[in-house]
């Protein structure tokens, strides 16, 4: 059985990219504060290891695996907010402090993003912060990466086994119009015309 | 040990460590001991134990008062509550992980500065490693 040190060494070699915005998610976290975190995507060893330094509850919801369910449908009985409620099954009373969306918005139709905002709104605090990717140019190709968090300023990246269906890149303006429970507070232009976004929950009415 | 050909429906409890290679449906409670769900183990049950290792398949909530490990062969659908949780590369997990179960001794230190959790097989020197340093 491998030792703890060996395991950490293995996590350290997971490819990553520096993040200018990720640290902002954690700069106001106080010592001993309990965090409730929404992580969109599959659970990865490095994400679990990273959050083990905090008192926290991690909710892993892999909507990337349900993109077909969220795709446009001519079936009038499909009501996206209900579909998302069923997929996400967020326990009543849950309030997220941090949401890690990664590049989910680049795979959802605008209606699905609006529905996601509707479903998430009751689970946000006024102080909730979030991280995600959009694009600057709509011609930006799919990254083909699975994202995770390696450290407070390091995003882990693993290659996806295959490109995901339904890629529809979303720019900042489009995102802000439909994701009405968050506003973009900072954005950073990355290589290949990708955008890294820091979001903050809008005041709940 | 619950062997590969054994199927149990009901409540499993006791005062010793348990290796499950068969099928269990119900509840498993061994609060002071270790439960290992082996590679051929298939469990549809909530598990409560001191330490829990999953090499097989579990559909249910898992509570480890000390730690929970999902190995690279493990497949878990459910919620985990434990002060220390380790997911190995290749593990499949769907659910939530609560690493703040309450008044365990490991939570006495300030959390934001706390070092990564230690697991039973670790060497002492590994306890000093800090994730930040990679």
The proportion of residues forming helix of chain B, as a percent range, comes to: under 10%
The gross shape of chain B turns out to be: globular
Beta-strand content of chain A = 25-35%
Beta-strand residue fraction of chain B: over 45%
Distance between the termini of chain B: 38 Å
Major sheet strand order of chain A: 3-2-4-5-9-8
The ordered string of helix (H) and strand (E) elements of chain B is EEEEEEEEEE
How many helix segments of chain A? 7
Number of helices of chain B: 0
Coarse structural class of chain A: alpha/beta
Task: Spell out the blueprint of helices and strands.
The complex is a heterodimer of chains A (205) and B (134).
Chain A (H helix, E strand, L loop, with lengths): L3 H9 L3 E3 L3 H5 L7 E7 L4 H7 L3 E7 L5 H4 L9 H9 L7 E7 L7 H11 L3 E12 L9 E7 L2 E6 L12 H7 L3 E9 L3 E8 L4
Parallel strand pairs in A: 2-3, 2-4, 4-5
Antiparallel strand pairs in A: 1-7, 5-9, 6-7, 8-9
Helix pairs in contact in A: 5-6
Chain B lengths: L6 E7 L4 E3 L2 E15 L4 E13 L2 E3 L2 E9 L4 E3 L2 E2 L3 E3 L4 E7 L36
Parallel strand pairs in B: 1-3, 2-3, 3-4, 4-5, 4-6, 5-7, 6-8, 6-9, 7-10, 8-10
Annotation keywords:
heterodimer, A: 205 residues, alpha/beta, six-stranded mixed β-sheet, three-stranded antiparallel β-sheet, 7 helices, 9 strands, 25% helix, B: 134 residues, mainly beta, 10 strands
Description:
The complex is a heterodimer of chains A (205) and B (134). By secondary structure, chain A is α/β, with parallel strands linked by helices. Helix content of chain A is 25%, strand content 32%. Chain A contains seven helices and nine strands; from the N terminus they run H-E-H-E-H-E-H-H-E-H-E-E-E-H-E-E. The longest helix of chain A is centred in the middle third of the chain and has 11 residues, at 110-120. Chain A is globular. Chain A starts with a helix and ends with a strand. By secondary structure, chain B is mainly beta. The interface between A and B is large, with 35 and 37 residues.
């Amino acid at each position: 059985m491998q030792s703890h040190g060996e395991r950490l060494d293995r996590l350290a070699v997971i490819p990553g990219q520096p993040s200018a915005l990720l640290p902002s998610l954690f700069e106001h976290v106080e010592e001993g504060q309990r965090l409730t975190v929404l992580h969109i995507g599959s659970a990865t060893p490095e994400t679990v290891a990273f959050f083990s330094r905090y008192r926290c509850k991690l909710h892993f919801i892999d909507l990337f695996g349900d993109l077909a369910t969220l795709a446009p449908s001519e079936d009038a009985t499909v009501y996206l907010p209900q579909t998302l409620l069923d997929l996400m099954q967020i326990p009543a009373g849950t309030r997220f402090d941090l949401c890690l969306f990664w590049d989910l918005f680049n795979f959802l139709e605008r209606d699905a993003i609006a529905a996601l905002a509707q479903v998430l709104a009751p689970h946000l605090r006024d102080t909730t912060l979030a991280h995600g990717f959009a694009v600057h140019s709509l011609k930006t190709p799919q990254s083909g990466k699975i994202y995770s968090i390696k450290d407070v300023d390091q995003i882990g990246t693993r290659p996806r086994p295959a490109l995901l269906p339904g890629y529809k890149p979303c720019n900042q303006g489009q995102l802000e119009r439909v994701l009405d429970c968050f506003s973009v507070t900072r954005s950073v232009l990355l290589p290949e015309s990708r955008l890294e976004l820091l979001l903050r929950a809008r005041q709940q009415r | 040990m619950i062997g590969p050909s054994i199927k149990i429906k009901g409540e499993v409890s006791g005062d010793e460590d348990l290796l499950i290679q068969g099928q269990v449906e119900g509840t498993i409670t061994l609060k002071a001991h270790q439960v290992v769900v082996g590679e051929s183990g298939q469990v549809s049950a909530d598990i409560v134990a001191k330490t829990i290792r999953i090499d097989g398949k579990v559909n249910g909530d898992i509570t480890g008062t000390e730690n929970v490990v999902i190995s690279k062969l493990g497949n878990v659908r459910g919620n985990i509550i434990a002060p220390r949780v380790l997911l190995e590369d290749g593990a499949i997990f769907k659910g939530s992980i609560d690493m703040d179960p309450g008044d365990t001794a490991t939570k006495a230190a300030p959390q934001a500065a706390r070092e990564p959790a230690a697991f039973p097989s670790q060497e002492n020197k590994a306890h000093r490693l800090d994730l930040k340093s990679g």
